[in-house]
């Protein structure tokens, strides 16, 4: 049986309000007060929030607001909460008066689906479920689901058939289902960034699987984001330096359906295949939602197809590691070492 998803997502906020440095040990008074720390769950994974602020009471109020917002958005996007809006949609096949955030994110998904030629497709969930069911059975065929099973499932994967507006979302065929796991982490990160900016935060790093910087660090230097195949990799293979940018990384090694690690979680919605093209795909973009979606889509595209998209998306950078170990950088130049 495949192991459960354990991909760690840490939401860490090291912020500065009103231009004050809010990093650990930035000053004697601040170090003595210590950061406000929250640890819990976000989108089915462990999450941590660390906020340093000279006014501890204000920091604690801000943490409460952030945690409340993350919890509210999880009640919209989570596949694991029985009462989430997404769970209800997948169960019933339709959702009346959907949350505005869900409609807005589906509109963003549609743009990513169209731009990527269908490589990014939230309706891939039935295919994901097929692989999960197959490998959860004792004595399952190590070669994966049969061709017949794939052929029966693939017609359920077609985002062009999903209908949505502010009044209703509809999945037109029984068995269709959506997953927003390839974009929702970035979206929630962006919402946290918006909340912090509204509170006057001018220097911050927010990370919940995907990272986004508000401005530079307190000393004016860029935030440094380690890039590796897994989020808890002790030694990243490279480091990206960012200011007012977001970083998202996708890697097939993040989760495998089978114990032999042949079938990864990044599924091609057009073919039903799982063979990885890259060891790691990192996208740097102005916001975490875009970075998250494209890191998923680009994981399934050939380099020339990625280049064609970047000819129009000129504010995006890509750093990828091929299965062979070779590295390739595309798009807008960025400080990656």
Automatic annotation (TrEMBL):
<keyword id="KW-0274">FAD</keyword>
<keyword id="KW-0732">Signal</keyword>
<dbReference type="Pfam" id="PF02424">
    <property type="entry name" value="ApbE"/>
</dbReference>
<feature type="binding site">
    <location>
        <position position="292"/>
    </location>
    <ligand>
        <name>Mg(2+)</name>
    </ligand>
</feature>
<dbReference type="InterPro" id="IPR006311">
    <property type="entry name" value="TAT_signal"/>
</dbReference>
<dbReference type="GO" id="GO:0016740">
    <property type="term" value="F:transferase activity"/>
</dbReference>
<dbReference type="InterPro" id="IPR003374">
    <property type="entry name" value="ApbE-like_sf"/>
</dbReference>
<keyword id="KW-0479">Metal-binding</keyword>
<dbReference type="InterPro" id="IPR024932">
    <property type="entry name" value="ApbE"/>
</dbReference>
<dbReference type="GO" id="GO:0046872">
    <property type="term" value="F:metal ion binding"/>
</dbReference>
<feature type="signal peptide">
    <location>
        <begin position="1"/>
        <end position="31"/>
    </location>
</feature>
<comment type="similarity">
    <text>Belongs to the ApbE family.</text>
</comment>
<keyword id="KW-0285">Flavoprotein</keyword>
<protein>
    <recommendedName>
        <fullName>FAD:protein FMN transferase</fullName>
        <ecNumber>2.7.1.180</ecNumber>
    </recommendedName>
</protein>
<feature type="binding site">
    <location>
        <position position="296"/>
    </location>
    <ligand>
        <name>Mg(2+)</name>
    </ligand>
</feature>
<keyword id="KW-0460">Magnesium</keyword>
<feature type="binding site">
    <location>
        <position position="182"/>
    </location>
    <ligand>
        <name>Mg(2+)</name>
    </ligand>
</feature>
<keyword id="KW-0808">Transferase</keyword>
């Amino acid at each position: 049986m495949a192991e459960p998803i354990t991909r760690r997502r840490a939401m860490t906020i090291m912020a500065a309000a009103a231009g004050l440095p809010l990093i650990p040990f930035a000053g004697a008074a601040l170090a003595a007060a210590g950061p406000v720390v929250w640890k819990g769950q976000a989108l089915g994974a462990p999450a941590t929030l660390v906020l340093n602020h000279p006014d501890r009471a204000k920091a604690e109020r801000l943490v409460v607001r952030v945690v409340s917002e993350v919890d509210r958005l999880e009640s919209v996007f989570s596949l694991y909460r029985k009462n989430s809006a997404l769970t209800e949609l997948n169960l019933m096949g339709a959702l009346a008066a959907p949350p505005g955030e869900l409609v807005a994110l589906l509109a963003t998904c549609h743009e990513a689906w169209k731009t990527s030629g269908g490589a990014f497709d939230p309706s891939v969930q039935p295919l994901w479920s097929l692989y999960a069911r197959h490998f959860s059975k004792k004595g399952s065929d190590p070669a994966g689901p049969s061709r017949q099973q794939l052929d029966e499932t693939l017609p359920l994967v077609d985002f062009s058939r999903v209908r949505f507006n502010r009044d209703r979302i509809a999945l037109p065929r029984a068995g269709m289902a959506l997953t927003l796991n390839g974009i929702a982490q970035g979206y929630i990160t962006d919402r946290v960034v918006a909340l912090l900016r509204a509170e006057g935060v001018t220097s911050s790093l927010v990370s919940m699987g995907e990272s986004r910087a508000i401005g530079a660090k307190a000393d004016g230097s860029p935030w440094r984001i380690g890039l590796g195949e897994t989020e808890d990799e002790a030694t990243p293979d490279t480091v990206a330096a960012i200011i007012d940018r977001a970083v998202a990384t996708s890697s097939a090694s993040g989760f495998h359906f089978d114990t032999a690690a042949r079938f990864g979680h990044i599924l091609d919605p057009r073919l039903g295949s799982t063979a990885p093209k890259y060891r790691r795909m990192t996208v740097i973009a102005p916001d975490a939602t875009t970075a998250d979606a494209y890191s998923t889509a680009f994981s399934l595209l050939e380099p020339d197809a990625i280049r064609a998209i970047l000819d129009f998306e000129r504010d995006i950078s890509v750093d990828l590691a091929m299965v062979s170990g070779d590295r390739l950088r595309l798009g807008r130049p960025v400080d990656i070492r």
